[in-house]
């Protein structure tokens, strides 16, 4: 298997999934800041936006976790 085909399969590997989970979790930091700012300014619309964004982050992490469980031992980079 060539290095290029392994690189293309990285997204479907455990390592790629972990990296995606880390990037998604990093987005939670921005959401937390947005919620804090909205509460400080008493801005309901911004708070609602932050809560909806947080729901998207949680959903994204749940989907990535499901993909990680699905991969199991069939890791592309290990084969």
UniProtKB/TrEMBL annotation:
The chain crosses the membrane at residues 15-32, 44-65. It comes from the Bacteria. Keywords: Membrane, Transmembrane, Transmembrane helix. This is Uncharacterized protein. It comes from Streptomyces spinoverrucosus.
């Amino acid at each position: 298997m060539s290095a290029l085909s392994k690189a293309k399969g990285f997204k479907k590997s455990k390592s790629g999934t972990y990296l995606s989970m880390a990037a998604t979790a990093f987005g939670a930091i921005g959401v937390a800041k947005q919620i804090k700012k909205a509460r400080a300014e008493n801005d309901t619309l911004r708070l609602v936006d932050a809560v909806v964004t947080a729901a998207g982050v949680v959903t994204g992490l749940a989907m990535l976790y499901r993909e990680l469980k699905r991969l199991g031992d069939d890791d592309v980079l290990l084969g």
